[in-house]
């Protein structure tokens, strides 16, 4: 399982815009790079990231090989109600990982 | 060997091989390549985005092209009536013109996206935002990538 | 006599203002290191936390917070080998001798993750190399290796990192070579690496044959560099271009 860093506040006021920062450990092999043997290393990247807030998609991103290794994404959401934020990274070679965080809205 | 270095020319590689000679890729900005423009038109469905309303933040001088922080922000109230639907970032001289395409809406609260990208060489970047009324707005930036003196491999 | 000269030399270095390579980085790269939610090196620290339990470190050492200050005291004298041992070597030795298992290989993600986790516990603390007279011969060898011209370019470490520190090599500023942030996340590597990997880079850069990972020479150079960096704050996991 890839390590992730997800940063968001545990609590927020209703209507507050909160910033979310995510990092995931991934090589993001471009598919353009020759290996030590001269043969091009096949592409292995995270192609898609989604953030669901109580099962509703609030942010998603399609990633290309131009995204740096260990992809970093920062975006924001409106703290609407208490619940669960689910972060999913998916990509080449069947890569898929979901992490969840709870948010309490006061 | 890093990804951008595999794209460097043989001459540059030999210069590197000759020791710790750093080669600064101080290339002047040129006319946008067609691949970039085509990718933008594919995103907009043929519409030419108008400059403005979008801020593209990237260091003008990059010390390592492997990991370059980039932030795109769009002026928008982010309400049901008026918000940003999508934000896309394109580059001119990487092997592919696309970098990231984000989908968002009023629940994002703020039309702002930050990530880190790879830059094979000095080039132009264009950020395009699709507004909820169907219009497209853009911003561009020219970036100079200097080559690290001590690359591996 | 030689030892006295070395002591005088080191005293001179310590008295001078020294600068971490951190100050030479762009504001963007500095920001990446400063903020734990943006520092990719923290991914390895997280991996290290998981390994601390799963690899059995916690069984003896308890909470990793108890390792505070440990990384600042390496390389240390190792009675088993009669010479200096670096932190990665100590972790491997612990796995092999006390746990009876095959240690994670040097420069493996697991080894880097554990070193990063232990290193983080000393972040902000001053580098405090042990004043152990048994380390003196290795320290002198490290000093000599640092000044030894090598490779087709016939350059020593000192020629760049002492004589020309702060100046530029092409577009890159030359740091003073204080290894205060290892293991660190290097943008060039797009990953985590040890001081030995960095030293290998430099050796290949001057077109000399690098020593194999774990070679005594690396640990002697590290011993010298850490003595030279005594008092400077540890930065693990640092970020460098």
From TrEMBL, chain A:
Domain Sulphur oxidation protein SoxZ: 9-100
InterPro entries: Ig-like_fold, Ig_E-set, SoxZ, SoxZ_dom
Annotated transmembrane regions: none
Name by which UniProt lists this protein: Sulfur compound chelating protein SoxZ
Organism whose genome encodes this protein: Belnapia rosea
UniProtKB/TrEMBL annotation, chain B:
Ranges of residues in domain Ig-like SoxY: 43-150
Pfam families: SoxY (PF13501)
Superkingdom to which the source organism belongs: Bacteria
NCBIfam families referenced in this protein's UniProt entry, alphabetically: SoxY_para_1
Name of the protein in its database record: Sulfur-oxidizing protein SoxY
UniProt source species: Belnapia rosea
Lineage: Bacteria, Pseudomonadati, Pseudomonadota, Alphaproteobacteria, Acetobacterales
UniProtKB/TrEMBL annotation, chain C:
Chain sites annotated for binding heme c 2: 157, 160-161, 202
Subcellular location: Periplasm
Segments forming domain Cytochrome c: 53-127
Domain of life: Bacteria
Gene3D superfamilies linked to this entry: Cytochrome c-like domain (1.10.760.10)
GO molecular function, one term: electron transfer activity
Principal location: periplasm
Family: Belongs to the SoxA family.
Record-linked NCBIfam families: thiosulf_SoxA
Quaternary structure annotation from Swiss-Prot or TrEMBL: Heterodimer of SoxA and SoxX.
Name of the featured protein: L-cysteine S-thiosulfotransferase subunit SoxA
């Amino acid at each position: 399982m890839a390590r992730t860093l997800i940063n968001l506040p545990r609590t927020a006021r209703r209507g507050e815009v909160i910033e979310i920062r995510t990092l995931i450990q991934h090589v993001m092999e471009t598919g353009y790079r020759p290996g030590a043997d001269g043969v091009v290393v096949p592409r292995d990247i995270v192609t898609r990231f989604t953030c669901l807030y109580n099962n509703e998609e609030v942010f998603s991103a399609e990633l290309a090989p131009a995204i740096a290794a260990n992809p970093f994404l920062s975006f924001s959401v409106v703290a609407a109600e208490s619940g669960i934020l689910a972060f999913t990274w998916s990509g080449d070679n069947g890569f898929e990982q979901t992490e969840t965080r709870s948010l309490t809205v006061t | 060997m890093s990804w951008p270095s595999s794209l460097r020319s043989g001459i540059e590689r030999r210069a590197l091989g000759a020791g710790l000679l750093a080669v600064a890729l101080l290339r002047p900005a040129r006319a946008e390549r067609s691949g970039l423009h085509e990718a933008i038109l594919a995103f907009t469905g043929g519409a030419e985005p108008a400059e403005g309303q979008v801020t593209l933040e990237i260091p003008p001088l990059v010390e390592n092209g492997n990991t370059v922080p980039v932030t795109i922000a769009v002026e928008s109230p982010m309400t049901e009536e008026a918000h940003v639907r999508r934000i896309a970032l394109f580059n001119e001289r990487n092997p592919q013109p696309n970098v990231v395409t984000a989908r968002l809406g009023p629940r994002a609260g703020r039309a702002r996206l930050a990530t880190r990208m790879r830059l094979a060489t000095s080039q132009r970047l264009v950020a395009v935002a699709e507004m909820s009324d169907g219009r497209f707005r853009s911003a561009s930036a020219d970036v100079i990538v200097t080559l690290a003196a001590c690359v591996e491999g | 006599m030689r030892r006295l000269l070395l002591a005088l030399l080191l005293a001179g270095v310590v008295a001078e203002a020294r600068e971490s390579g951190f100050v030479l980085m762009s504001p963007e790269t500095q920001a990446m290191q400063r903020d734990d939610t943006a520092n990719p090196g923290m991914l390895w620290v997280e991996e290290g936390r998981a390994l601390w339990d799963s690899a059995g470190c916690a069984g003896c050492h308890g909470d990793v917070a108890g390792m505070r200050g440990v990384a600042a005291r390496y390389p240390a004298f190792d009675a088993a080998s009669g010479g200096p041992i670096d932190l990665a070597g100590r972790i491997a030795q612990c796995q092999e001798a006390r746990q009876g298992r095959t240690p994670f290989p040097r420069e493996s993600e697991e080894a880097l993750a554990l070193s990063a986790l232990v290193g983080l516990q000393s972040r902000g603390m001053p580098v405090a190399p042990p004043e152990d007279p048994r380390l003196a011969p290795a320290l002198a060898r490290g000093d000599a290796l640092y000044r030894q011209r090598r490779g087709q370019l016939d350059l020593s470490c000192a020629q760049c990192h002492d004589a020309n520190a702060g100046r530029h090599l092409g577009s890159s500023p030359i740091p003073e070579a204080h290894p205060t942030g290892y293991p660190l996340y290097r943008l060039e590597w797009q990953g985590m690496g040890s001081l030995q990997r960095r030293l290998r880079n430099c050796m290949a850069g001057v077109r000399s044959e690098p020593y194999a990972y774990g070679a005594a020479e690396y640990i002697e150079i590290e011993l010298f560099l850490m003595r030279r960096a005594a008092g400077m704050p540890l930065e693990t996991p640092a970020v460098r271009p």
